[in-house]
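Work package 3, deliverable 3.1, input record:
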Amino acid sequence: MAELIRAESNFSRPNTMVQSLLLDSRQFSSAENVCFFALSGKNHDGHLFINELFQKGVYNFVVQQLPNGHYEGANFLVVPNTLVALQKLATSIRERSKAKVIGITGSNGKTIVKEWLAQVLQSSFEICRSPKSYNSQIGVPLSVWEMEEHHEIGIFEAGISKPGEMALLEKIIKPEIGIFTNIGTAHDQNFKDRDQKIEEKLQLFKHSQSLVYKKQTSALSEKIESFAVLHGVELLSWSEEDKDADLFIEAEEIGESGTRFTGRYKGNKQEVSIPFKDKASKENSLHCWRLALEMGIRSEDLQLAFSQLATIEMRLEMKSGSHGNLIINDAYNSDLESLKVALHFLENQGRKRKKVLILSDVLQSGLSNKEWSSQWMELIGHFGLDQVIGIGKQFVKSDLHLKTPFDVYSSTEEFLSNIYKYQFHESAILLKGARSFQFEKISTLLESKSHETVLNIHFDRMVHNLNYFRGLLSPKTKLMAMVKAFSYGSGSYQIANLLEFHKVDYLGVAYTDEGVELRKAGIALPIMVLNPEESSFDDLVQYQLEPEIFSLNQLRVFSKSVKDKQGDFAIHLKLETGLNRLGFIEEEIPTLLSHLAQQPQLQVASAFSHLAASDDPDEVEFTQLQIARLRKMTDHLSEKLGYSFLRHIVNSSGISQYPEAHFDMVRLGVGLYGVSGNASDRKDLKVVSELRATVSQIKHLKPGDSVSYGRTFVAESLTTTAVISIGYADGYRRSLSNGIGEVSIRGKRYSVIGKVCMDMIMINCTDGDVKVGDSVEIFGDDISIYELAKKMQTIPYEVLTGIGQRVKRVYFME
Ligand SMILES: *Cc1c(COP(=O)(O)O)cnc(C)c1O
């Protein structure tokens, strides 16, 4: 390996076998034959985790510089750039492989095409393919690393976000056959124009023999054709409009259960059916068909495989169930890597709960039964599970040797009729089943009954926002994530778990109870409590929460309550600089200092203040005054206290507006949830949640009929209305009555008629196609939270935190 990546080696254990690569210390599951690549990026330095991993038994490291300290028995490979080394390693694996490699790029559908191709080709070939949508500068080398001698075909996807990236991926994948799915708007902002983006993507096929594409009158089609001439690439075309295409689709019949294509391929009539009717699925399947024909798959095999194409769910969903259970549903189950990702998620979110895995047969692993079961059993062994349940015929109990209690059922039905035996409570249950096993039946049974109004929260967007703000900080600046008020209405420990996983430095809550709840869920990060009531001081100490101290009286009571206790207690001093809410004024500081001098048990962990108008460009002067006051007061404190503490003042909008005031830490609140008062932040953030309700009933009104309390709406003509399952008790304000509020159903807007009720609203859908059970967007992609806030004459903060507790929170991870 040292040779392949041209590293300077520092071996204490030569002749070590490396079987898996680890790039992220949080994904650690086993130290055996692992090599850690210490990647360093703008917000992250892998070198900081070497010691932690070494303690866990990892002893192979690829690094940019040797760490200080003593690492007996460890191997270090030193390279100028660890990412480049990772890519070199993958390149050399690709060069040695005899597999035929298929490379896929395009704006949409890459992962689906990859998965479907694997489904279509797996009966004839041994296949290696990218896990999930691993298509980046890091994901591609990791995918290619998985190629082994027995693989006959490799299928890899490549995604880029800016010019220059594809050339690097091309070197690693070196596809013999390519597929260009389509071109859309993703990442447009990083390219000069659409043409540049197409050209850049085409670089993947520079050295390919052939390329599959859809022949049509379009700029993309033309570009592909001239590229092929220039680089001597043979084109493998399909088309619905151009009879000259190799595969011409003559007819397309849409029936109850899907679409049937009749095509003419090199003079012969051919047919396949797919179980989908939407445009994107049709296009994706036709790319696969053209390629499968090229590979010479027999037409009976093709027909069978296409009729069984399965939807690819690429996200993981988490809901709370009955009896305090947590249900994690990950339908994407076709490879070991995704099982590993889901198990990490289970571990991270499950914490102190019992952990249960319900796993179905794997239909598309590309491995033999035996190989698959030995691999997943080994993987499971690294996670502390309490119960494993296997569903399907592939599980043969006698073959299984697990320490964890393990039960096998031949079908989902059989398990469901035995589910009462388990009496799950306070458990975290991971459901990982192929679609045909219909695990949704299990999750429905385990879910708590509640009305069908949901706040969907997207974890990946929150991580995106976190990284955006981290990018604005210098590496030394710490970050406190504000998770007060149920994480701005988005949940509590779920968000804190995610933030802890992503290594924020501190959490901030409003009241002691909120902190206690996080501790009970297993959160170990330091937690500051903004407004701890005196009556809660015992809990505060017992759960190692750190109080904000804002008055002399409060300081006295707190010191009294810890007097008889052992150890030091961290406190945070709140200083008044202009908000005129809580905090010590400047004149109190001498008294404060003399109190602190008598209380050596109390350690000032930080001193801070809060800005009154950080998002208001008209108040820059006042904000600067606040910042100067904090500086002056904390200088004074630090001089007299004789030890150092953290200083902080900026909230979300202060982070981008006042970089000079980051001090030692920033407090990130609403920005984490994707909301900002600054236009500049707003364009880079993603709102993490969307609020959705359901249509409960449709009504047809005659002229003169009225709607809702007080009869404020009276129909003048035939009117159709829909009743929607959300009301003011869920946070949908009564002020949205009578046409002020709007909702969106499948992209079309409808306005509220009559008064908003406690649990319901009515909309006018006379000119729409609305059905009972339709999902209704209250805010989200169509109706922004800013728009809704404006109509409610408030700010997004209040919209988020006002969402009622009975609205179910559902978490997604793409
Ligand atoms: C809520 C809060 C924050 C976060 O404010 P955002 O505007 O949501 O970023 C920061 N500091 C204190 C003291 C707070 O109460």
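The mean pLDDT is 92.
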